[in-house]
Design goal:
- It is a single chain.
- Helices cover 14% and strands 29% of the residues.
- With 624 residues, it is of the alpha+beta class.
- It contains eight helices and 36 strands.
- The longest helix is centred in the middle third of the chain and has 21 residues.
- It has three domains: 169 residues, no CATH class; 180 residues, no CATH class; 165 residues, Sandwich (Immunoglobulin-like), CATH 2.60.40.2630.
- 45% of the residues are buried.
- A hairpin with a 4-residue loop joins strand 21 and strand 22.
Length: 624
């Protein structure tokens, strides 16, 4: 495990030339009642030019020294000289500012109009005084903004692509914002108990496996008289046929938690159905009736000469199970299509839980010895579906003091002036707004409110993965919580972020593709568990940590990110920083059908992790 010495250095706070501030304020005699002053406001977006992509790179990612723009911009003014903290209250209600476009311009003000985007090279933007009214003595501000959303066909897809946080407490109280009220919360993907589709799938699986018993009658000759008897073969109890027993263990995952998604159920049913069609017992051992210590050969009918064999019993069991499938067809619960593919007829069951935006591994079932039950409890070692949330959206944030000037500064903003410190040096006025203030600049830039996981993925050998047989389809990350006004986490309920906007990444030894996803800052000193979600496109089942991983189904490998030695109080994910992680998969023996509870895991890891940190804006790590 390595440590980057730059890890937790905040982005350099831009130095402000404050020389002479006290002396220039000493002679002020502003005795007039406090009023609002119209000022131009200069800000800088602190991110550098992009070099990575996610989703649609032409729209969702900052590309070619542009950014996506900024919308829903709010400024909240304070009298605080220094960093704004939880206990502070604004001096006035916050107000909205016009959107910033993704375009770049040579100057901020030309031909009588203001540039709606950023100034090339220095990435600054100037809001004219017609939009900015600040009370006298305002000395600092909180500013929030968001990247514009990319629209999709439905809300679930849109939230996965753009991310989302829910803001609360932003409303003013008696005309003033209370900083301690402002919170940003994860948005649950499906904040409820499993839907009826989950139980419908479990019921169908149970109808095949539960109390599967076939009774066969026979005749036997004892003491000169033909008598009748019967024998019941129960699939999951007294069946000694090794193949049928294996079928049962496979279908019920030998009592382990197994996938309860529609895809997993259809594969289970299809595979068992085809096995039964091809099954025929060849055990010609004659079944014996035992009575009073005597053994009598069982015959198929009285007076007959054809003995009842174990093959007859097991084939009757096979026919009974096939009849179960036939009854499910008659009941309209399944249909059998070309190639003996079993399909669920209920459309919601077929697409569950992906239709809700949840990972397939969030749907889990467990054979309890009598039936399949829907599993949605940390007591069973799985994460409840109500704990999954969307990734955070791309927001910008500044907690900044002011530099001011008594003159207009439009002419200062040109692309040739790339150094923001040089621009701030032109603001030689007070550190607060006064009646004669005409221009204000934020000392600190707007930077990213979120963090980034940047994971390099590879496997140890072709025996683990090759080609396109195991595509990466998503990532689940723990440690997501409600955030304070400055996007630092509160203790409390933990959510598991699910990002499914991933494509083109495969588990292979030949390449080391990079997975990137946005995350929220995590608690100091807390280990972060995550799951890599793959799909088994190899065409064959293989054994994992909790049973067989079926073809066409998702499976999960768990990793843990720890603070390096000597940095036990560090946050794994920190606002405006990228956490670089190297993931090595050495075996698929720890692959899982379902997603374990990442808050209280007690499991073997399937991913070896090493990591370091990198500052986002100064290292060209682009948020998206």
């Amino acid at each position: 495990m390595t440590w980057n010495c730059n890890t937790f250095l905040k982005l350099p706070l831009l130095l402000v030339c404050a020389a002479g501030v006290l002396s220039c304020n000493e002679d002020r005699q502003d005795l007039a009642p406090r009023e609002s002053v119209s000022v131009s406001l200069a800000i800088r977006v602190g991110s550098d030019s992009p070099d990575v992509s996610k989703g649609d790179p032409s729209s969702i990612t900052e590309m070619n020294e542009t950014f996506r723009g900024m919308t829903e911009i709010m400024l909240i003014p304070f009298d605080v000289h220094g960093e704004i903290r939880e206990g502070d209250k604004s001096n006035n209600a916050g107000f909205s500012l016009p959107d910033i476009t993704s375009d770049y311009y040579e100057t901020a003000y030309t031909g009588g109009s203001y540039a709606p985007g950023l100034i090339l090279n220095n990435r600054s933007h100037l809001f004219p005084g017609s939009y900015v009214q600040l009370a006298r003595e305002t000395a600092s501000a909180l500013i929030y903004g968001k990247a514009p959303r990319i629209f999709r066909a439905n809300e679930t897809e849109e939230r996965h692509l753009n991310g989302i946080l829910e803001i609360s407490g932003i409303e003013p109280e008696e005309g003033r914002q209370v900083v301690s009220n402002i919170r940003f919360s994860p948005v649950g993907i499906y904040p409820s108990t499993p839907p009826t589709a989950a139980y419908g799938i479990a019921d169908i699986l149970s109808e095949v496996a539960s109390a599967a018993s076939q009774t066969t009658t026979y005749a036997y000759y004892a003491n000169g008289v033909w008598r009748s008897g019967s024998v019941s073969v129960i699939w999951n109890e007294n069946c000694s046929d090794p193949r049928l027993k294996d079928y049962f263990k496979w279908f019920t995952n030998d009592g382990h938690i197994s996938g309860g998604s529609g895809i997993a159920a259809e594969y289970l049913l299809s595979y068992l159905y085809r096995l039964l069609l091809d099954y025929s017992s060849y055990d010609e051992t004659i079944y014996e009736h035992v009575s009073g210590g005597q053994h009598y050969n069982a015959m198929k009918e009285a007076g007959g000469t054809e003995a009842l064999t174990y093959a007859d019993l097991y084939n009757d069991m096979r026919d009974y199970l096939l009849d179960r499938f036939g009854q499910l067809v008659l009941d309209g619960k399944i249909q059998i299509e070309e190639g003996n593919q079993v399909k669920l007829t209920n459309s919601l069951q077929r697409v569950y839980p992906g239709n809700l935006g949840l990972p397939d591994g969030a749907a889990a079932v467990l054979w309890n010895g009598i039936s399949f039950e829907v599993t949605d409890d940390t007591l069973d070692g799985v994460a409840p579906i109500s704990t999954y949330c969307y990734p955070p959206d791309l927001r910008y944030y500044a907690n900044s003091t002011f530099s001011t000037s008594t003159s207009d500064k439009e002419a200062s903003y040109t692309s040739e002036k790339a150094d923001w410190n040089a621009i701030l040096a032109d603001y030689r006025g007070a550190k607060s707004v006064y009646s004669d203030t005409r221009s204000v600049a934020l000392d600190q830039p707007l930077n990213y409110s979120c963090a980034m996981l940047r994971a390099t993925l590879r496997c140890a050998s072709e025996e683990v993965g090759r080609g396109t047989q195991y595509p990466l389809t998503g990532v689940i990350i723990g440690g997501q919580r409600t955030l304070r006004f400055d996007f630092s986490p509160l203790s409390g309920k933990e959510y598991f972020l699910y990002d499914n906007c991933i494509s083109g990444i495969y588990l292979t030894p030949e390449t080391s593709p990079v997975l990137q996803t946005l995350v929220s800052q995590t608690l100091p000193g807390e280990n972060v568990y995550f799951c890599l979600e793959f799909r088994n496109d190899s065409g064959i089942a293989f054994s994992g940590a909790d049973g067989r991983i079926l073809p066409g189904c998702k499976f999960y490998l768990v990793g843990r990110i720890e603070p390096p030695e000597g940095e036990s109080d560090a946050s794994i994910f920190r606002r405006d920083c990228a956490t670089n992680v190297n993931c090595l998969v050495t075996s698929l023996s720890e692959a899982r059908n379902s997603i374990p509870d990442l808050e209280h895991p007690s499991l073997t890891l399937g991913v070896i992790v090493t990591m370091n940190w990198m500052q986002a804006t100064s290292s060209y790590i682009v948020m998206y």
